[in-house]
Amino acid sequence: MPIYEYLCQECGKEFQYLVLKKEDEDALACPGCKGRTLKRLVSRVAYHASDQDRLAAFDPNAPRDDAFYKDTRNIGLHAKKRAQQMGVDLGSGFEAKLDRLRTDPGKVFDDTE
Ligand SMILES: [Zn+2]
Which of 36, 44, 75, 105 is paired with 65 by a 20 to 30 Å CA distance? Predict the structure, then answer.
């Protein structure tokens, strides 16, 4: 399923949205201002890497900027890496929670903006 990135042309907020069906996109509104003047952005990051590749390439000690945290696929990556290093199984509940965070990034980032 494609996750698209949108720019709200009314308030300038960028957000990502998981499009399950075409009708979802038609009804889409900005999570910041509820504006409907949205522009779909061409993804700036290729979506080829699998979760495992991403995890393998992730360096928990490298400095991260805003862009890292705006990429919802990176949510929970740090915790997963730590767990992997410690040999801890986070279980499917953790994955499900991550999926929810990743598909509804507006909620996650509301406090920081
Ligand atoms: Zn907006």
Answer: 36
Half-sphere exposure of 19 (CA within 13 A, CB side): 16
Q: How far is the CA of 109 from the centre of ligand 1 (A)?
A: 14
Query: How far apart are the CA of 108 and the centre of ligand 1, in A?
Result: 16
What does the pLDDT look like over 14-46, one tens digit per residue?
998 887 887 888 889 999 999 999 998 876 554
| Domain locations in the chain as residue ranges | 1-44, 49-113
Q: Give the pLDDT confidence of 46-80 residue by residue, as tens digits.
A: 455 567 677 777 777 777 777 776 777 777 777 77
Q: How far is the CA of 12 from the centre of ligand 1 (A)?
A: 6
- Please state the φ and ψ torsions of residue 17, each to the nearest 5 degrees: -145, 135
